[in-house]
Automatic annotation (TrEMBL):
This is DUF1688-domain-containing protein. InterPro entries: DUF1688 (IPR012469). It comes from Aureobasidium melanogenum. Coiled coil: none annotated. PANTHER family: PROTEIN URG3, PTHR31687.
């Protein structure tokens, strides 16, 4: 709720062209929506109902291989649906935590197919193959699980081996990813949520037995129950360098100068995004729904994801333009970064750190525009009532894909977004 509400404040200012860092051209809005609609039509028309919700599951199926189903087929029949769901939650949680921007140089060669993958799909296939090999399990008899002891043995070197990282195949933010997994190992000690087994998958048991869950023909779990479990359960993993209030790190939430401040209280200027937690919500709901028929009530509370594909779409279609002074500052930052050894210097774009006011505002505008685009996309497709696409479906089939594809056309060498973020491996 706070994510949408506080981003909306920044968004409404921008629509009146009072943004601090971006010029907004609302005449481009319908064109942006048309581009998203063209991608949805190309891949799914006329069967819009078949669009899956946004989530990690699809990334595992790159190249048209149903890897998750193939994985489950290798488990004996004696493994029931509840344990199957636990294992998928184990896999998905670790895979999402590894899913920060990979950078343009890194590739992963599948040990199974010999094919080469990159970016999100590469990280998905790599994490799946590591999972099957027992990389995150402390039990040699049960490789296909993630547990606290298994994660605590991880370091950057261990992760580099699993992800095939070398000097010639660098992965952005490797150290940050390794430390997130080790911290997840600590967080799993929370027995209330993750059970005495200290596995992410026991989140399922926590939700099914939660007092707010209604047991009708299928279990009905309120989205705030899942959200709070993830926010509380994963609180220990966020880096201490994140925004803190009263000494407590609040994760992916940042100071934004556009926010009003009546009393100068520190929280008034904070815009929360919690992108990774929301991506987890979207991703973990899928196996629970597919295998255990859990119904999640209130999914409309989740927002669009403020990450560089969705945000990049808005810039590459001309809806948002970075103001000249900020563009100059970002380009200077890019040049400084390019001088570091091994940094590419092909297609120059403005670059900022994740806590920069430009990035915070860009992400807030992304949340605001995604809600409006969802409405406009349904309107252009002529879908009404129960046939309307959910925001999760528009993210999956439309905006994320559109953002990636327009980046590939606009910057064919690097395929990077129009604004780059210095990656520490823990945000995106």
């Amino acid at each position: 709720y706070a994510v949408r509400e506080r981003s909306k404040y920044v968004f409404e200012l921008a629509k009146r062209n009072k943004s601090k860092h971006f010029d907004v051209d609302m005449t481009k809005f319908a064109d942006t929506a048309r581009f998203v609609v063209s991608i949805i039509n190309r891949d799914y028309a006329p069967d819009y109902a078949s669009i899956p919700p946004h989530g990690r599951w699809q990334h595992f199926e790159v190249g048209g291989r149903p890897r998750v189903d193939q994985l489950m087929a290798t488990w004996p029949k004696s493994v029931n649906d509840q344990e199957r769901t636990r294992r998928l939650i184990d896999l998905f949680l670790v895979s999402v935590l590894l899913d920060a921007g990979a950078g343009q140089k890194w590739t992963y060669k599948s040990k199974e197919s010999g094919k080469v993958y990159r970016r999100s799909e590469g990280l998905a296939v790599a994490s799946l193959e590591m999972f099957k090999a027992g990389a995150f399990s402390s039990n040699p008899n049960e490789p296909c699980q993630v547990d606290s002891a298994g994660l605590k043995k991880i370091n950057a070197q261990y992760l580099a081996k699993g992800l095939q990282v070398t000097e010639n195949n660098p992965l952005a933010g490797l150290e940050g990813r390794a430390s997130l997994l080790v911290k997840l190992g600590d967080a799993l000690q929370n027995q209330d949520i993750f059970g005495i087994e200290a596995r992410p998958g026991y989140l399922l048991d926590y939700l099914l037995s939660h007092p707010s869950t209604q047991a009708s023909s299928v279990p009905v779990v309120p989205i705030p129950t899942l959200w709070n479990a993830l926010m509380d359960g994963l609180a220990p993993i966020w880096p201490s360098t994140r925004t803190a209030i009263d000494g407590v790190s609040i994760g992916d939430a940042w100071h934004c100068n556009a926010m009003p401040s009546a009393t100068n209280a520190p929280w008034e200027k904070i815009v929360p995004f919690h992108k990774l937690t929301q991506w987890l919500c979207y991703s973990l709901m899928v196996p629970m729904t597919k295998l255990m028929h859990v119904h999640f009530a209130g999914t409309e509370l989740l927002t669009g994801l403020p990450e560089y594909r969705n945000g990049g779409l808005l810039i590459d279609t001309g809806l948002l333009t970075l103001k000249p002074a900020d563009a100059k500052r970002g380009l200077e930052q890019y040049q400084i970064n390019a001088m570091k050894q091994g940094q590419p210097n092909m297609e120059v774009v403005p670059m900022f750190s994740v806590d920069d006011d430009v990035i915070v505002e860009w992400r807030a505008l992304t949340v605001g525009f995604l809600d409006e685009l969802c409405f406009e996309v349904n309107s252009q497709l002529g879908l009404v009532g129960s046939k309307k696409l959910s925001l999760a479906q528009v993210l999956e089939a439309g905006t994320w894909k559109a953002g990636r594809e327009i980046a590939e056309v606009s910057r064919p060498n690097t395929k990077e977004p129009p604004i780059m973020i210095v990656s520490d491996g823990t945000v995106f």
